[in-house]
Amino acid sequence: MSARQEVTCWYVLVIAGQSNAQGFGEAMPELDDLQVSPRIKQLGRYRGVRPDGQYEDRWNQLVDASHALDDVKDMRFCNLTGNTDLRRSGTVGPGIFVARRLLPLLPDDAGILQLPQAHGGAGMNFGAAGRYIAAEACGPLQQPGASIGRCVMNYANLTDSNTQGAMAWWGVQGAAAPLYRDLRDRLRFALRSNVRNRLLGFVWVQGESDAHAGEPYAESHGASFSAMVDTLGRELADLRPQFLGGAWEQVPWINVLATHWWDETIAAHAKVIDGYRRLMRQRPQQMCLLDVRQTEHGMMMETNQTHFIDPHSKDYPPVPGSLVTDGRSCEPEMIHIHLSSGAYRGEVSRRIAQALQRRCFDD
Fold first, then answer.
1. Burial of 278 from C-beta contacts in 10 A (0-12 / 13-18 / 19+)
2. What is residue 4's predicted lDDT score, i.e. its pLDDT?
3. Residue 204 is part of which domain span?
4. What's the structural domain count of the chain?
5. CB 111 within 8 A of CB 52
6. What does the pLDDT read at residue 164?
7. Which pLDDT value is given to residue 278?
8. According to DSSP H, which parts of the chain are helical?
């Protein structure tokens, strides 16, 4: 794209679900991961006073996108023990790497606008009711939309905290659930802000919390997910001309099975996964199941466990390099449930981008 050519429209890519959609890759981002592009943005979220005392208002602003996006749970202050390069704090997620792979497929005057809508630990039916505050009801210090707090770990001069309180995407509240309302309202804003903007699709990584919680959550997961998708289509029906395929039924949902922690020998896990398989058979134009639990060569996909070093060990470096993880985003015994930054940077983002390309760009 010429340096003088401006972006005149955005292809909106929603990345939603729970922790493996948000990205809990613990290793420090590579310096290349921090590079921003004028053609890759995100719809900002955070408003209020940050833990370091600075005020910001990113709510529904187009802001730069790098390794950590403005998801419902704020991971920007989650830091490696000993890291002094605070530009490289936060965990690593899939969004920027998927967007970079899709960018060459777009017209020269178009960009990718990422809509980060994930929250670690969120279930479809499992989880607390949560809260939602409309932007017009918020003061300058209040966070609009669905709000859950932030993770502050090992950040310079800040007290460690890890606010959890996972919400449910649907549950008993249905369309009134905060996570759903937040997705619907921000997606509507992203499309209505420019009539030339197009909804590219959804990357959806979800279901692990319901599966792990067992019954009745696993049993009702598929029905609740279908109801959420159908309700969202109806509530956005007036924006149909801005759907890339021209119809809600053609907007792709790339439903990702993220790590080998999904064990189909566990009945509740199998029930959730079978629900996504059934939807793919029933709605082949809309639903795509992408299983990245294993690599294309049949090995287990890399997780945070590969690079784990106990921060209290004599082997932990005083200034960590890019490959170190220390279990800061969850308990060390659970780090195998999250994809690594290397997996996001490599095969996982490539396969997600390929799935979107087949659905959106290939004839």
1. middle
2. 56
3. 9-360
4. 1
5. no
6. 64
7. 97
8. 19-22, 95-102, 178-192, 208-213, 217-235, 267-282, 341-343, 349-360
Average pLDDT per 10 consecutive residues for the chain, totaling 363 residues? 75 97 94 95 96 94 96 94 94 97 97 97 91 92 89 90 82 95 98 98 96 94 98 98 94 97 95 97 97 97 95 93 90 92 97 97 80
Asked if residue 3 belongs to a domain, the reply is no
Token pair 């195998």 in the structure block, residue:
336
What are all long-range contacts of 55-59, with beta carbons under 8 Å and residues at least 24 apart?
A: 55/141, 57/140, 59/135, 59/144, 59/145
Predicted model pTM? 0.96
CATH of the domain at 258: 3.40.50.1110
Token pair for 288: 């795509």
Q: With the C-alpha atoms ordered 54, 55, 59, 63, is the resulting torsion angle positive or negative? A: negative
Question: How far is the C-alpha of 67 from the C-alpha of 76, rounded, in Å?
Answer: 10
The pLDDT of residue 328 is 87
Strands 9-17 and 198-205: parallel
pLDDT for 363 equals: 62
**Phi/psi at 206 (nearest 5 deg)?**
-160, 165
Relative orientation angle of helices 217-235 and 267-282, to the nearest 10 degrees: 30
Q: What is the DSSP string of 239-275?
A: GGGGBTTSSGGGS-EEEEE--TT--TTSHHHHHHHHH
Helix axes 217-235, 178-192, angle to 10 degrees: 30
